[in-house]
Predict the structure of TRAF3-interacting protein 1 C-terminal domain-containing protein.
Amino acid sequence: MPGIVSKAPGQDKTDALRQHIQAVSRGALPLGKLLDLLSEDLDSMNIELSLWKEEHAKNLQAYSSEQSATDSILEPLRQNLEELDQRIGDELEEISARRAAIFSNAERLEKMLTVANLGR
């Protein structure tokens, strides 16, 4: 048949394969760009992580210094409080002893008055 161009026996398969390869290539190009951007993002995230770690270490050191300063300021106050607690305990014991003495003296006085009233 004149004017009709016949394709070679494997030409259809070759064309289909070529189209598939081109489609894969077109899809791979954005993926490659995405991987480049991902790499840049990871780099910037790692830099930011390093900055946050430095900030954390600096703040941890500042906290430790403040804690130490606070403890050194509070230590004399704690000792003073302990001494005051001891003095309060001593005073309470003294009050109890005096109450007991007053009670004992009151009993003795009552007995003496009872004896004095009997003698009249």
In short: The chain has a mean pLDDT of 89. The CA atoms of residues 17 and 23 lie 10 Å apart. The radius of gyration is 49 Å. Residues 11-118 form the longest helix (108 residues).
